[in-house]
Structure formats: structure tokens, C-alpha cells
Design brief:
alpha/beta, TIM Barrel, 12 helices
Length: about 375
């Protein structure tokens, strides 16, 4: 058994770090033999996600590509590149693409194997690692069972869903996932990625990767609107949702629009008794990387205070480095440089402690 070290000092809680499977055979010890044989017999070489192309510059920092392995596949290298650089706790969000698998039984088996692999390969490697529970959204009941299976494991502090789902995430079919997460005291993280057959943009399939990448925030806005209007937070008042790697500057305008239209159409959603902006500020948190506003310029100094005022509170922001993804060359190009020392501590650490309430339980392997 490895117990987690307490979060100490002024080190950060990084809510979005991406570990990766280097070879699908790494999961075979955790799979029923039926499914490991299936992978071999059907020539399944891997399930690395296509929404971060391997050789695209923004997919990985140059230093994370060292050694010829998949960026994010080496716990020891990540220790040096993330944990030993002022991060007390790194929350792992594994994007290995088990969610789009159409065979429900295979998806369930792969999600469970991936979680067990995370526990043995990562959480046991360093007590500063935590992880998100990967669940198969094809069957929310079985996804809830996976949450319940791992709820007592102190190393898992979040449930991970992907933004491009088959149906909106507020739909009542998904509610068993939120019920299980809320019962376990775990927030639900929503990350860009494909978990269904819908196109990544509301208007259909884009022609370029740039269109898809730039449009990722559109799916997140749609999912947030769904969660609020379908009454997820009314039904599960203790639930927190973390929007990962989706930008933040779009949120004030969305809250304004929802509030405006709610005033005239609120009879359609009688379960939303407070303004949508109030509900969002109460239940929703956002990661800081990649930051989608101006930085490092006089324009930033003019506009960022206005954005923070419109947001309402830095309580909504959680620090993320988004390793190994590479969104800028200069590590100083971040929102943090424009915050007061007290606000900076909130974003780096205190908001994470408040959101991930099980984070101090540590990793029990």
C-alpha cells in the first residue's frame, strides 16, 4: 500500500495532465483473456486518440518526445517534467480512446483495464499522482458500476467524460453516472474528445484539423447548456463539473445569454429555480490551459480584469498545465501572471482542494 503525501507548501494542484498508453499490450494483464485475444486476432495495434495527431507540434512539447516513446507514457519522465517543477498533485486524464468503441462489452472491459493499469502503473509510481476514472458512456449503468468499484480507491479523484458524446450529457440517460459520482464525492471532468458518432462541429464535419481544434469550445458550451437546462445540478446538488481544456473566455457571454432567455422561457425548465449563471458559478469549474484570451500584452492588461469581473470570481478557475500538450512557447504566458498573490494561490491550489474533496486521501494501491 502506498499512502498519498499531503498537499503542502505552495505547490500547485494540476487538474489536467495526460498520461498515455505506449502499447496496447500494457493493458493485457488487466483484461479478460477473451479481450486480449480479440485485440491480437483482430490486429488492434492501439487506441491512441486521433484528436491530438502524434506529429502535430501542439500535441506534445519537445522534451516530452524524448526517448522515442509516446509523449506522456513514462511516469518517471513525467515526474521530472511536471511533479518536480512545483506541482504537488497531478490529476491524470487518460485520453486513450476506449469511449468510441461500438462494442459495449469490449468498451466496458477496456475502461476497467485502463483504470487498473493507471492504478498499478501510475498511482503506485508516485504518491503525488491522482487519476480520473475512465468510464464507458455507451452504458451509463455499467459506467456507474465502474465508478462504484473504484470509489474507495483514494487515488481516483474524478470521473472523466468526453465532450463529443452520442447524445447531450445532460440527457437523463447519463444520470446514473452523475448519481454515482455525487455519491462518491467525485467531480465529473469533461474533456474535448470523441465518444460518439456525431461530427465535432454543430454544422457538420470540418475540412481541417484547425477547424476542429478551434471549434472544441463549441461542444463544451453545448454540453454545459445541456447540463444546466436538463436539471442535472437540480437533481444532484452536490455535483461539481470541471470543464477541461476548453478555454474560459467564452463563459461570461454564454451565462448572459442563458440568463436572458431563461427569463422568458423558464416555464420549460421549472427545475432551474435560480438564474443559470448562478447555477454555473455554483457547480462548474474550468481549467486554465489553454487560456484563450490575450496574454503578455497591454491588451491583456486591459481586457483580463474585465473578463474576471464578468466571470464573477476566480473561484471557478483551476490550474492546469495540460502536459504534454504544447500551447505556447513561454511558460510565463499564462493567466496567473495577471492575478494577485491571493488569487494566484486560489487558482494554483485552494480551488483544487475545494473541488477535489477526496484528493488528500492519497493513493491506496
Amino acid at each position: 500500500m502506498t499512502s498519498g503525501t499531503p498537499v503542502a507548501g505552495f505547490g500547485a494542484i494540476d487538474c489536467d495532465v495526460h498520461n498515455a498508453v505506449d502499447d496496447i499490450a500494457e493493458l493485457f494483464p488487466y483484461l479478460p483473456q477473451r479481450w486480449s485475444d480479440y485485440c491480437v486476432e483482430h490486429g488492434v495495434a492501439g487506441l491512441a486518440p486521433a484528436f491530438y495527431p502524434r506529429n502535430a507540434a501542439l500535441s506534445a512539447t519537445p522534451e516530452s518526445r524524448s526517448g522515442g516513446r509516446t509523449p506522456g507514457a513514462d511516469p518517471e519522465l513525467m515526474q521530472a517534467q511536471v511533479l518536480d517543477r512545483g506541482v504537488d498533485v497531478a490529476i491524470l486524464n487518460c485520453l486513450y480512446a476506449v469511449q468510441p468503441i461500438h462494442n459495449e462489452d469490449w468498451a466496458v472491459a477496456m475502461a476497467s483495464a485502463l483504470n487498473d493499469w493507471q492504478a498499478q502503473r501510475w498511482l503506485a509510481a508516485d504518491p503525488r499522482y491522482r487519476a480520473s476514472i475512465v468510464v464507458p458512456p455507451q452504458n451509463p449503468q455499467r459506467a456507474a458500476q465502474e465508478i462504484e468499484r473504484l470509489a474507495g480507491h483514494g487515488g481516483f479523484v474524478q470521473v472523466l467524460l468526453l465532450a463529443n458524446s452520442q447524445v447531450p450529457l445532460g440527457n437523463r440517460a447519463h444520470w446514473p453516472i452523475y448519481e454515482a459520482a455525487a455519491a462518491a464525492g467525485l467531480p465529473v471532468g469533461i474533456h474535448p474528445g470523441v465518444a460518439g458518432g456525431n461530427p465535432p462541429l454543430p454544422i457538420g464535419w470540418p475540412s481541417t484539423y484547425l477547424e476542429e481544434y478551434a471549434g472544441a469550445a463549441l461542444a463544451m458550451q453545448s454540453q454545459l447548456t445541456s447540463l444546466v437546462c436538463e436539471g442535472v445540478f437540480a437533481r444532484f446538488p452536490a455535483l461539481k463539473v470541471v470543464l477541461l481544456e476548453s478555454g474560459v473566455t467564452w463563459l461570461p457571454s454564454l451565462m448572459w445569454r442563458l440568463d436572458k432567455n431563461w427569463k422568458g422561457l423558464r416555464r420549460e425548465i421549472p427545475w432551474v429555480v435560480d438564474r443559470p449563471s448562478v447555477v454555473i458559478r455554483r457547480h462548474v469549474r474550468l481549467s486554465t490551459a489553454p487560456f484563450d484570451g490575450p496574454l503578455g500584452t497591454e491588451q491583456a492588461r486591459e481586457h483580463l480584469p474585465r473578463f474576471l469581473d464578468q466571470l464573477g470570481s476566480v473561484d471557478m478557475l483551476l490550474y492546469s498545465g495540460d502536459h504534454p500538450h504544447w500551447h505556447h512557447h513561454d511558460p510565463q504566458q499564462s493567466l496567473l501572471q495577471f492575478l494577485s498573490p491571493a488569487e494566484r494561490r486560489q487558482v494554483l491550489r485552494d480551488n483544487g482542494l475545494a473541488t477535489y474533496r477526496t484528493i488528500l486521501q492519497g493513493a491506496a494501491v
